[in-house]
Design goal:
The protein has 236 residues and is of the alpha+beta class. It has 2 domains: 20-142, Immunoglobulins (Immunoglobulin-like, Sandwich); 144-188. It has helices at 2-15, 145-205, 215-235; strands spanning 24-27, 30-34, 39-41, 43-46, 56-63, 70-76, 79-82, 92-94, 105-107, 116-123, 133-140. Strands 2-11-10-5-6-7 form a 6-stranded mixed β-sheet, with no helix packed on it. Strand 6 (70-76) and strand 7 (79-82) form a beta hairpin. The relative contact order is 0.13.
Length: 236
């Protein structure tokens, strides 16, 4: 029976086809850029497989208000292929690292006409089933207020956290130093009391420290002795 079960399991596993894993592609959601500046559009992917030598990256572009999508970049066979006829001719550079699953591109000297949606697709054979990811580019003459507020709030939050950490650190140091000082003072006071208690009985038992009788008491006793003979004479 055991032999039959083993043979059946081998037959079942042999008939199941090898399944390809899914690939997950990541890009930014939205990028802001100033007129005349350079902007990097990042693209990376996650795959359960090792990075294949046949990994590919593809970028497409769709301008705002347009339905047409044009191909602007393709990487395959270890070589990048740039579009020399599209809207980004001579202004696009491949800055990714396929070995690290990075297919980023750099757009140079952007203008208002570059506003649109950029879509990245990646394949890491045998992981080829995945959904492309898109990022929208918005070009401004000045930094938008919303972006400035968000950036300022992030910077303010980080600085606030750093200041809070520094304050807590120095407060803990102060409390520890105060605790150590109070312990040292209490120990010193206890030692002083113990020494005083030990010296007290010794001083009382020492005869050298006993005070002699005062001269006043001696003179008083002598005067009383002198008075007694006189009283006897009076009686006679």
């Amino acid at each position: 029976m055991l032999t039959i079960a083993v043979l059946a399991s081998v037959l079942i596993l042999g008939t199941v086809p090898e399944q390809t894993g899914a690939i997950v592609i990541y890009t930014g959601w939205e990028r802001h850029a100033l007129v005349g500046s350079d902007v990097r559009l990042s693209c990376s992917f996650f795959s359960w497989r090792w990075t294949s030598e046949d990994v590919t990256f593809s970028w497409t572009y769709r301008a705002d208000g347009s339905r047409d999508t044009v191909s602007i970049f393709h990487y395959t066979g270890g070589m990048p292929y740039l579009d020399n006829k599209g809207p980004f001719r001579d202004r696009l550079e491949f800055v990714g690292n396929p070995a690290r699953r990075d297919g980023s591109i750099l757009l140079k000297n952007v203008d208002f006409g570059d506003n649109g949606t950029f879509t990245c697709d990646a394949k890491n054979p045998p992981d080829i089933s995945g959904r492309p990811s898109s990022v929208r580019l918005l070009v401004f003459e000045k930094v938008p207020i919303q972006a400035g507020v968000i950036t300022g709030s992030i910077i303010g939050t980080v600085l606030g956290l750093l200041i809070l950490i520094v304050v807590i650190y120095y407060l803990m140091r102060f409390l520890v130093a105060r605790r150590v000082f109070s312990l040292n003072v209490s120990k010193h006071g206890k030692k002083k009391k113990e020494t005083q208690q030990r010296q007290g009985p010794a001083s009382q038992a020492d005869p050298s420290k006993v005070k002699p009788a005062s001269s006043g008491t001696v003179s008083a006793s002598s005067s009383e002795k002198k008075k007694h003979p006189e009283s006897r004479k009076d009686k006679k």
